[in-house]
Amino acid sequence: MTDTDAFAGKTAVITGAASGIGEGIARAASGAGMNVVLADVDEKRLQRVLENIRSSGGGAIAVVADVSDSDAIERLADAAEDRFGEITLAVNNAGIEMIGFSWEIDTTTWDKVIDINLRGVVHGTRTFAKRMIAKGTEGYIANLSSVGGLGTMPTQAPYIMTKHAILSFSECVYLEMQVARHPIHVSAVLPASVRTRIFDEAQTDRSSAFVEGQRMRMAQAVEGGMEIEEAGRRILDGIAAGQFWVSTDPETTAGFAAARAQYLEELSPPALTQEMRYLLGV
Known about the structure:
There is one protein chain. The protein is α/β, with parallel strands linked by helices and 282 residues long. The protein has nine helices and nine strands. The strands form two sheets. It has a seven-stranded parallel sheet, with helices on both faces. Strand 2 (35-40), helix 2 (43-55) and strand 3 form a beta-alpha-beta unit. Helix 1 packs across helix 7, helix 3 (70-84) packs parallel to helix 4 (107-135) and helix 4 (107-135) runs parallel beside helix 5 (157-180). The longest helix is centred in the middle third of the chain and has 29 residues, at 107-135.
């Protein structure tokens, strides 16, 4: 018996489920016998994933929801409970990328990245935690950070900042569940390179040759990444095992963590690495 066997017949809600890692997790959850509630703002892609899961015999519904709207998350939770009953797993995955110099990114775009990447995770955690706690049964909340949450990258400040914040937020909630003695497992998911379209769809100034060049190099870099189905399986396995640190590539995550620990221990100034220079084209 594997850890995910205990999820069979239970219900998972996954945001950002219309593509990428969210789709991979949704497929893995359905494969483990879970009912899945798919949430995203892209209705067309959401319908594609829904039809795929249903055609494979899985139980699923799709809900168009903007994670930056706390009321929309409440409606999402209502829809999930109305259809399947108790929610066992909530995966706060929805997120977007942004490339550009911090001072050149307009206020509207800054707000959009923070609202989706960070506030969306806070809204989801609060909404589903309260409902799980009210039921008094074992539950799981997984928040998508990134290996970028253990590092830095110039011209990706909005994304990197939110991923650091998600990690810190998840650490705090993990401890709060211990203090309050609630049977809710909290995980921070730190994917490494996964083959998604996040850089193809990144919010950028396409008129800037520098920014567009970086976007293309980042997109090419993830082309060789892990397929979303494998990433989804590894992530679901880690969540089911009750791990706080969940990674698609433990070796890469450990490398990022060790580099971050050394950097903080030595209080080194930020420095451009060879990988950064390549991705920046400098």
